[in-house]
Amino acid sequence: MKRERLRAPDLAILSAADRVTLQLEQQRALWDRGFTRRRFLAGAGMVAAASLGSQLVTSRHAFAAPGTGTGKTLVSVFLRGGLDGLSAVVPRNNARYLDARPGVGVRDAELLALDAVFGLHPAMQPLHPYWQSGQLAFVHAVGSPDANRDHFAAQALIERGNSTLTSPTGWLDRVLEIDGPGTTFRAVCEGPTVTRALRGTQSTVAMTGIDSLKFTNPAVNISTALRSLYTGLDNPVEGLMDTMIRAVADAGPIRAQDPTWAPRPEYTADPFGYALADIARLVKANAGLRVATVDIGGWDLHSNQGTSSGGQMVEHLTNLSRNVAAFGTDLGDRIGDVTLVAMSEFGRRLAQNTSGGTDHGFGGLMMLLGGGVNGGLVHGSWPGLEPTALVNGDLAVRNDCRDVLGEAAQRTLNLGSLGTVFPGHQVRPLGVMR
Amino acid sequence: MLPLVSELPAAASAGSVLSSDPDLHLLRRATFGPTPALLADIRQRGRDAWLEEQLSPDQIDDTLVNTLLPKFPLISAPLSTLNGLAQPRTAGLELIKATMARQIWSRRQLFEIMVDFWSNHLNVFALQSDTHLTKPIEDRAVIRPNAMGRFVDLLLADAKSPAMLNYLDNAKSKIPTPNENYGRELLQLHTVGPTGFTEADVKNSALVLTGRSVAPGGEFLYKPTWHFVGPVRVMGWSASNASTSAGLSTGDDYVSYLARHEQTALLLSRKLAIRFVSDNPPQTLVDRLAGVFLDSNTAIVPWLRALFQAPEFAASVGQKTRRPLEDVVATVRVLGIGPPPARDLSDMERLRVNATNLGMQPLTAYPPTGFSDVAAGWWSIGGLLGRCNWHRLMARGHLPTLPRPPLSALIAGAPMTTHGEMADRLTVSLTGQTFRPDHREALLGYAGLSSAQPYDKRLVDRWLRDLTELVLNSPYMGLR
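^ inputs. structure came back:
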């Protein structure tokens, strides 16, 4: 535990604060015997609510000094709402596709070249150089084979890495468990709350950028008092205050490396651009970041999706591509230490509806970017769009998203074994990593 | 026959720091935050009388809020006025501020919680271009009139609400290939839940609802020529659906079927128990509530009464947490801050921005699932830090245009002899209870004080703001 520097006005009350600290340590010795949390979970039947504070599990806490941070980073981007994969990576010269999508379909002449079967939506042009340099790959017809077309359930299946919704913790939480202890910032969720993929027993910092981790109360002994008040609660918020105080303390030295930091102009001035910029900042500051998550919503385009030359889909794909490309530029050489994997809960129906949109479908699209990605390829098997290949009128799920996530995590973070990251599922790598 | 609330034993939840005082427990759950005045009221009248009054909101005099609402004229303005707005977004923003004002100052506290509950269950994002004018109308014509009525009436009204029909795209849904968004979410989110039906059911659901649309002026409009004609079947319901003219009544029959479905009763009862009892409520309670819901033809008042009379409710002290919006509202309430006295609504805007910064501006959950109602959805490092910084502002006079008593009122009364007495008085004012002894010492220790010390007014005056901030940061405020 770092010792806060004392300021002059607070010296007068040191003795009282120290008294409290001593009581707190004695009390914690009692509670830390695993008594609190286990009894709470059993008593209240709260199997789904692991400790939100999680200091019980993560024992080692150290800020890696600049230049000493090693290890690589997995960045999980969740496109909330159901990305229309058939608009992003388009089957070329496919009569089934064009017939089903007279308004929203993208014609071959407009596509950027990928391979013999697929072309890239023109709005994703900023990412095309990464395809050409072999750092960008896609997986089509991918998803959770057990998903239905419900946003919440389909997202939860992917984020919990399970074939049922019974597993209470997220797949990235279990990845961290295998990865072992790390720094305060080893797991960061860019956003106001912890995403389902990271919920569980491992400590995660949820924040809207490291610049936001500033406590406006300047008194040093507030930490002692707050820690004490969050001790012995028999509630999952037990310990969260302690994690918060450590994160605030450790954020300072990282910010100090670049006090005038601002996102590069290539990013868009919105939460998604800011989140990716902040992740790049943490990587470059050697903060010990292992896993980061960021969300981007707005993909549930049931109506007015637009055409290939303009409209909502073009705006969303442009925003996504511009920011992910900016992330790659921002990382520079460090792109070799990072794998970004983007996913969505499901794809959209093959046929557009009468309001110029697409409804919830099945098979979706994943995207990977990074130095270790086996890029320039659309991985996995492709079922095609013939009527017999469709499932309820939709692109089938031919590739299991867990195989992609598992391979990306294992190879990026150099995990020996994936253990029970995906309960009941044996990961079969598709070769998305080199 | 269920026991009266007052007949249940005061069940302590093992290990919780929250007091198991049943009056306080009920107020923490059935209001947006207890206040000393509310606690005195329930102690005087008893829990049963207090709850019965809350279950009949029309009988509660709400003069304060009724005199405040004219400051938000757009929430009651006719569509013609709204359509003439140069900046339509102001209508949605005004509704959000009025919603927070009602949560803070209305005496119909349980009613406001139910308005929040149903607004979230039937979520509509209030700030998009095709909802910011119609959401205020939905709030006053669909949600509020039915929030304590019958669910079947609420759902029937919602299925004709322009805000909902725009938000979930049904306004554009027509033959031959309907938009499935509302037809699917009506099943999955609003009624029977994610299981028990097929993709064919979803497609039929969308077909039944074709034609329910919105006129250019923002009124509900059924468009017969857009309606699918022919046999339709969803789960155990079917209709010949033989004419476009009967399309609307066929749809109402379908919506009524879903509202009264057993799976709906279970889904809603679980959600209600998560709202009021715990993040993972006992199945026995959920089953029993579902029975009450079905037996009373989806009436909401008997359902709520059964919940508050349940032993599972009594035994759940401290198992819920305050979400960010509930924290913002409860903080304003417990500090005794009054409504804006003049036309100046800048502090209502500050309140809205504060809720937004904490991630929970009311009526603005973007996905149709609405806001999460469990601790894991909200309690994070950034979220906790945001709350602490908000409490510091509030203890230091944030919201300067709103009238407020001095902090010294929190410890007013007979002369005090020790700092321990002062701490007890402060925590009782702000949280309704004294702190556990070690927590009380931690609180006082922050100011360099301790319980046994003789009361020193000069020291307490100097530290009262900081002590108030720390009490607001404590789990006695964060848990409920």
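The two ends of chain B are 28 Å apart (CA to CA). Confidence is low (pLDDT under 50) at residues 8-12 of chain B.
thumbs up if we can close this ticket
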